[in-house]
DNA sequence: CAAACCCTGACACAAGCGTGGTAAGGTTTG
DNA sequence: CAAACCTTACCACGCTTGTGTCAGGGTTTG
């Protein structure tokens, strides 16, 4: 059996066993399992756990935020949609003079983003 | 007074006035104010509100997720730290053979990321 | 000036997150 | 085989999010 069991991993990382299970089901740190479904933490998982702790403390973010960042990375259509929304400015860019023009401009951008996203959502 | 007031904006966008205030304080859609601090929604804000609604529905994400995405964009050190953590793999890359090597590799990467982040957090 | 609007601040409440505990049952090991 | 571990599945609890409503007070407008 190679790799630390959940209690050993808890001791060396500072997380509680309960939280290690939570992080597993949250998809942030999911160690491989033994034949009897025991979680086996290798050096990779231990490192990830320690740096996760640092990340959360120093950046004042939540576990769910990291989960969302992971989603952003693994779902390109999601990323495209979110970035597209953030790019939408309240004020019209140069060269787009009146309101009608501007609305058309925004709607077209939106359509381009939806097309890029591939409408699977 | 140019721009819709909060109740008018609520009617045309489908959000409740309460939620428009919430979105304002959350930093997602913050319209300019009149001299008496009335929120004034222009076409830009209205568009942003409608597309936000679409974004949340279609992508099954939360308001706070969009807020976090905004933080990710406006705080490069945060973005660097999160992306760095997500890049940390459980398995060592090619050419890094034993565990000691691998741990050193990861730690150096981590330090590089922290340096890049500029340790203001 | 009075009605109809806007503001902020507060109370309320459901649902979810992060975390601890515990129970019932399988596995490993001395 | 018994002790010490592991598993999942629950109950619980405080805090945050998202949302409604209401009160007290300023503003705009007919």
Describe this structure in words.
The structure is a homodimer of 121-residue chains. Chain A has two domains: 6-62, Multidrug-efflux Transporter Regulator, Chain: A, Domain 2 (Orthogonal Bundle); 75-117. In chain A, 64% of the residues lie in helices and 0% in strands. Chain A has six helices and no strands. The structure holds a DNA duplex (30 and 30 nucleotides).
CATH topology of the largest domain in chain A: Multidrug-efflux Transporter Regulator, Chain: A, Domain 2
Distance between the termini of chain A: 41 Å
Q: What characterizes the major β-sheet of chain A? A: none
Top CATH class of the largest domain in chain A? Mainly Alpha
Number of helices of chain A: 6
CATH architecture label name of the largest domain in chain A: Orthogonal Bundle
The total strand number of chain A stands at 0
Order of helices and strands of chain A: HHHHHH
- Tally of individual domains of chain A: 2
* Strand-pairing-aware structural class of chain A: mainly alpha
| Largest interface in this structure | A-B, 40 and 39 residues
Detail the poorly predicted runs of chain A.
Answer: 115-121
- Mean pLDDT of chain A, as a whole number? 85
Helix fraction bin of chain A: 55-70%
Shape, per Cα inertia axes of chain A: elongated
